[in-house]
What we know:
By secondary structure, this protein is α/β, with parallel strands linked by helices.
Amino acid sequence: CGEAHAEVNAIRSVKNEELLRESTIYVSLEPCSHYGKTPPCCKLIIEKQIPRVVMACFDPFPEVSGRGVRMLREAGVEVITGVLEEEAIRLNAHFMTFQKLHRPYILLKWAQSSDGFIDRMRSCSESPVLFSNAVTLMSVHRLRAEYDAILVGTRTALYDDPSLTVRYWSGKNPLRLVIDRRLELPENLRLFSDGNPTLVITEKIHEPSGNIEYLTVDFTKPIIPTLLQELFRRKISSLLVEGGAVLLQSFIDSDCWDEIRIEETPFELKNGVCAPVVTRVPDRFFYSGGHLISKIHRR
């Protein structure tokens, strides 16, 4: 946040500025026209006398949508809009969802056996079923690096003791969120003891402690709306839900999701914890290693 926009970086990369007066600048999103953490890109485009802008989609933020185009055209810049608009909206899905729906873009992800189980029935002292191979493990960590926050439930935290960090890919760690209604999770879990930031969703009132913050919510009501409001307030534009079947199903049943990724392995478990149920048919399939990954997009 607060870094130079793509237009600024593109213009700065041109060594011979005389060429800018003969150039066309292509952007996926309407150039900004207001002063925020950075100066307006439109002002720079006009100052550098770039004669033509080709744009995919308008800024979804109501207070500024259309302003950039108007500012450029009034300065004599030719502006072409709507080029590859649908593709640009998908490319900027996190930003678009955050601005339009006032909540983060939500991706639900899980791995399952070919017969539809995400784990066997086990105690917290037993190891979980490992579905991932080296390729899909890197894919998961790459995904984490692309999201602002990651969420798991109480059972996943207790039974799997995950780190939820980016270790097999480069990038920053997402903010870790864990649901712990009664603050019963042990303090020696990796979520609490490795020094990385964690936000605990609980019904208890608790002061922050070191790397751990607490969000108090009313568990007698659905907690997802409250959580999403808090994430929006914190300017978290994307949420990856890696929790167990109950948590994932609650997001599906609440219709609070934008995308689902399912890693399906070729072997069967025969019985165990059933995978979440999705009634929609995936609109894209692709292979990664020996695993079939289905990718579902909301429209």
